[in-house]
Amino acid sequence: MHRTRLLALAGASLLGGGVLVAVHLRGRCHAEGPAIPSGSAVPSIARVSVATQHEDEPPPQGSPPVPGLDLTRVSVAGEGLVAPADGGVAHLTLDPDLQHTAIGLMAARHLPEAAAVVMDVQTGRLLVYASRAEQGPARDLCAEASAPSASVFKIVTAAALVEDAHLDADTRQCYSGGEQRITATDLIDDPHRDRWCATLASALGRSINTVFARLAKEHLVPAQLDAMARRFGYGDALAFDAPVQAGAIHVPAETLEFARTAAGFWNSTLSPVQAAEMSAIVARGGEAVRPVIVDEVVSTGGWALRSAPATPSVRRVLTKETADELAAMMEHTVMEGTSWRAFHDGQGIAFLPGVAVAGKTGTLTDPETQRYYTWFTGFAPARPAPGAPPQVAVGVLVVNGPSWQIKANVLARDILRTYFAKHDLQGVSRPSLTAVARRRKK
Questions:
Q1: How many domains does the chain have?
Q2: pTM to 2 decimals?
Q3: 22 inside domain
Q4: Which end of the chain has fewer beta carbons closer than 10 Å to its terminal beta carbon, N or C?
């Protein structure tokens, strides 16, 4: 690890850090992406109480944030990464090479705003916690929940349709309309107008708004969707080593607004940390594991003030059957859906040969501010096998301006390429930061 190069790239910070802010969104969405209408509320920063920790006592499972932890000031120390904390320094779980690559990819493309979180699915340990804002003060975008969930919320709706309405991946729904917006007419089954049909799995992979709107209207009630969203962590401060803004959720009772919300239009926001945890829940067969970024906190005198729990804190969110069904559906995003192009080159050759990737995208535009939001959350390998690299979950957000650079799924793909190349997976190559910067200049 080259300390000089890392610090030069990150400006003595391998995060990009700073102040949490909320963004108000208006306007229309793209074929897969909802927008938050004028007047919608964004969540306030969660207030989390911090308990006193004795030097010789490890924190309990589900422990509170580390007092004074400043993840906007991540730097190199020896072979690892550290951040300031009250009374000393926090040694982090992050992989320095992956962290360096993630920030390097953001910088090489001059992304206006971007954030990426990579989590070890089994342990909850974070390998990447990277964010960057091209302008303005440094901010911890990984912890902000001001961006709308967009079509990532379809994961929640799909879970409710499977677990509460007892549908499955092969459930078929015919549809028409709904690419940019959903009207009352789009919710009405009409054999003369509904020229296309899709399974629930294909609808998730291709992010077909009308399929989700109609199925939710017919098979769910608002209370069920709201309850499922809260099981995924919406409305609550995420248990983490640093404060994370709670994702907002509001499920309207009116039929059309309810259907729009179920399809991912309006009424919810998400942080990249929560996005990664949502995919980890599916990957773990329905269990949520507490994300961990602090290995230990060491005082200025060299005393251990706090250590990560040996066993991760786990809670049940979904039945294993529901999670398995969701995992299979999420594979369609890369196999045939909105991320097929991102994960294959111009000849259709996979950037991650032999690695099944499960995921979900989200896209929207705020036409008034010309901010173009894209999401990718997912996990890989989708079907772990003996000898395969440890399974990781990702949550990536990219915010572009009028002349956008790349979508979140491309950034996620390149971070995953780096991860699997580090594990010497045959046929997987690392992205070249120099080549990325050169392509941008053309």
A1: 1
A2: 0.86
A3: no
A4: C
